[in-house]
From TrEMBL:
Gene Ontology terms, MF aspect: 3'-5' DNA helicase activity; ATP binding; nucleic acid binding
Domain Helicase C-terminal positions: 266-418
Region feature (Disordered): 742-773
Name this protein carries in UniProt: DEAD/DEAH box helicase
Biased amino acid composition, Acidic residues: 750-765
Length: 773
């Protein structure tokens, strides 16, 4: 990377030579073109996003300018010089990057003082990091709750802040990404008060319009480097649909073997053959189950092999996570069942195969997980095992939807009032909030300030707004969840705290009778105290898992856009949803067979959010041959299938969206199907559905019509979370209804032209977030 004229000419040639020598000493002989170009932009003082494939060496693009700044800073009179803040979405990635930086910077002596600062950092180390660390690695949670509220103690670091590195920035989308965007604006505001204006260096998996997303995330202009010059080994990608079993589920529907069981078998076979593999699974419980099943089957082959497979997920103790990461690096572990905590950039060299148990929600995540194997340039295998779910079934039968389509855009909405309001309070608590500051936080801020004053959260004094309460303003919101006090999971016999569950998920995950997994052990929830936010559990070994059921009603608050679809209408706007968890199902492990249902008595909860909905008329029902006896089942089936397919178009998870179908809705006075965002203020799923309604509902119709079952099954119209027990459902009626509806659908461009500006997509999966900062 030869020097050239420009604003970075202040860097001495000697320093650059030392850094490049250190890079080469780490085994990187020639930086690829995309790395060199990104580094040059950063050295010129321009914020830049590197959006290239997995294992393309994105870290080197920001390490060259960062290390150059730190080496020069070490020669400053105060010995502190320039500093760098590195943000990762998970603790594991920050720890992995810290190891890499220390190895890479070893030839540079003591110029680089890298340290991880997160909830696992011992308190005795924190003061040293604040005073002397010049490369601090943390996560957005710790920046939000720990660093920014305590900015006077970080004044020396912030005053010298030269670079902010945001790794895996494509994960910051939807509600989570919107929160992180406001956290970064608070950081920029404090840096400006201390006289610093850091350059943002972002690394992302391949994404559509990465510069646009990076600018919305940071609030500053960002240059884009997206052409990937790194070498690639051959990747064989298999799509695997589990076979049907002899069992029958609800309403006699055929039941497939679960993706969990299939993935456990594949991980077992790969381990027996000595193939280093990771099985990615969508939930913590699934990771534990795959590990346990695989260990049991390996023990039958060779008892020594059982210890070479383990589970990895969020919620483990720090020392447990570090030990697993080290065992995977060293090759002591041959197989790992992991959540997406290992998806994000961790350098796992030597992996030969990846098993993906269930579509991970986005094409970007799919390629990110598949890219964990073959990082050394060798050939690799990736297997996507389909769940018994409309989307997964659609994808294995339509591979072009995966392989012939570009990855999704990363969309977020920092102006969401439910997101912005608590960050305005946090900013005012950090430094009184002035009118000039509002330009930084966006146009919605001015309208929110009177509401915050009326709620007695802020008070105007002279020219600034002040935080008025004794409690910490940063605790108003959980940037990964919906807020509210987390529910503590406590073991009854010992009083030991096992972990916590987000308040928004407590009703459905730790209700009385729920099965709770922790570190390979199974617990039954004996009671849930909502007032004290405590779930009492005891260790047990039930032969089943549990799934909560709920009921939902919905009312229209405001219709933003309404478009004719033939005689029917397609609408987008604000709604109020009333939801109540009413029961739970017990499902047999491995097979998923329903063993029974138990009623629950939990209070209802209301949610104001955004929704897309469509209506049909009597004439359309007549043309579709839908009589009153099958109308409810036809609408219900179309609702279920459309929710199942929406993640392909809105990059969300079906568990983050909801739906209601009503033969005669009191607000529309017509048969209506609603699909809504499961987050206060909306998360962008419904709005993206509105933008792509014709394509989305066409795929929905195709998925139902092409399913081989007779009357409906989990692969097409049955939902695992239906509060009505998947009754009524009418498969053929749903196909006819969608056919008639789509006959009147305008071209998608017309819908997009009349729709409001795109807003956020899905949030990162909170189940894989670090527990707290």
């Amino acid at each position: 990377m030869p020097p050239r004229e420009g604003r970075h000419a202040v860097w001495p040639d000697r320093i650059r030579a030392e850094v490049v020598a250190a890079v080469r000493a780490a085994g990187i002989e020639h930086p690829w073109a995309h790395q060199a170009r990104a580094a040059e932009h950063a050295l010129d003082g321009d914020s830049v996003v590197v959006a290239t494939g997995t294992a393309s060496g994105k870290s080197l693009a920001y390490l060259v300018p960062v290390l150059s700044a730190l080496v020069e800073g070490a020669e400053a009179p105060n010995g502190r010089g320039a500093t760098t803040l590195y943000l990762a979405p998970t603790k594991a990635l920050a720890a992995d990057q810290c190891r890499s930086v220390k190895e890479l910077s070893h030839p540079l002596g003591h110029s680089v003082r890298a340290a991880v600062y997160d909830g696992d950092t011992p308190f005795e180390e924190r003061e040293w990091i604040r005073q002397y660390g010049n490369y601090v690695l943390t996560n957005p949670d710790m920046l939000h709750r720990g660093i920014l509220p305590s900015h006077p103690r970080w004044s020396s670091f912030l005053k010298s802040l030269k670079y902010v590195v945001i790794d895996e920035c494509h994960t910051y989308r939807g509600v989570f990404g919107s929160h992180v965007a406001q956290v970064l604006r608070r950081l920029r505001r404090l840096c400006a008060r201390y006289g610093a204006s850091p350059v943002f260096l972002l690394a992302s998996a391949t994404a559509a319009e990465p510069a646009v997303a990076a600018r919305r995330l940071t609030g500053v202009p960002v240059l884009e480097v997206s052409d990937d010059a790194s070498p690639r080994g051959e990747l064989v990608f298999a799509l695997w649909e589990p076979p049907l079993t002899e069992l029958h589920g609800e309403k006699g529907a055929p039941v497939r073997r679960t993706a969990t069981a299939e993935a456990a078998d594949l991980l077992t076979d790969l381990t027996v053959q000595g193939v280093r593999s990771v099985a990615f699974v969508r939930s913590r419980r699934g990771a534990e189950l795959i590990s346990v099943i695989s260990q049991e089957r390996l023990a039958e082959v060779d008892r020594s092999l059982a210890g070479r497979v383990a589970a990895y997920r969020g919620g483990y103790l720090p020392e447990e996570r570090r030990a697993l990461e080290q065992a995977l690096h060293s090759g002591e572990l041959l197989g790992l069942a992991a959540t997406n905590a290992l998806e994000l950039g961790i350098d796992i060299s030597g992996l030969d195969a990846v098993v993906i148990a269930g579509y991970p929600g986005t094409r970007a995540s799919l390629w990110q997980q598949a890219g964990r194997a073959g990082r050394s340039g060798q050939g690799a295998l990736a297997v996507l095992v389909a769940r018994d779910d409309p989307l997964d079934t659609f994808l294995v039968h339509h591979p072009e939807a995966l392989f012939d389509q570009p990855v999704e855009s990363t969309v977020l909405d920092p102006d969401n009032p439910y997101v912005l309001a608590p960050h305005l309070c946090a900013a005012a608590a950090e430094l009184p909030l002035t009118d000039e500051d509002l330009d930084l936080f966006g146009p919605a801020g001015e309208g929110l300030l009177p509401q915050l004053e009326a709620a007695k959260l802020l008070r105007r004094r002279t020219r600034a707004w002040h935080w008025t309460r004794r409690e910490r303003a940063a605790d108003l919101t959980d940037i990964r969840g919906e807020g509210g006090r987390p529910v503590q999971v406590v073991e009854t016999g010992t009083g030991r705290l096992l972990g916590t569950v987000d308040a928004g998920a407590a009703h459905s995950t730790v209700h009385e009778g729920a099965v709770h997994l922790h570190q390979g052990r199974t617990y039954l929830v004996r009671s849930l105290d909502l007032e004290d936010s405590v779930a009492l559990v005891e260790e047990a070994a039930p032969p089943y898992s549990t799934v909560a059921r709920d009921t939902t009603s919905i009312s229209v608050l405001e219709t933003d856009v309404e478009i004719p679809w033939g005689d029917g209408r397609l609408c987008f706007g604000s709604v109020e949803v009333t939801n109540q968890v009413v029961s739970y199902l017990r499902r047999r492990l491995i097979t998923g067979e329903v063993l029974g249902e138990t009623k629950l008595d939990l209070p209802p909860r209301t949610l104001r959010t955004r929704a897309v909905w469509w209506t049909v008329t009597e004439d359309q029902l007549d043309r579709a041959r839908i009589n009153p006896e099958i109308l409810g089942g036809s609408l219900h089936a179309a609702e279920h299938a459309s929710i199942g397919l929406l993640p392909l178009f809105a990059t969300c998870d079906r568990w983050d969206i909801g739906g209601v179908s009503i033969p005669l809705h009191p607000d529309t006075l017509l048969p209506t199907v609603f699909v809504y965002d499961g987050h206060p203020g909306g998360a962008g799923f419904a709005e993206r559905a509105f933008h792509t309604a014709r394509t989305w509902l066409t795929a929905t119709r195709q998925a139902i019509a092409s399913c081989e079952c007779d009357a409906g099954c989990p692969s097409c119209i049955q939902s695992p979370k239906c509060g009505n027990g998947n009754d009524p459902l009418h498969k053929r009626g749903a196909v006819r209804l969608l056919t008639v509806l789509l006959e009147g659908a305008p071209e998608e461009k017309e819908t997009a032209d009349e729709a409001p500006e795109q807003a956020p997509e899905d949030p990162a999966d909170p189940s894989e977030a670090p527990p707290g900062p």
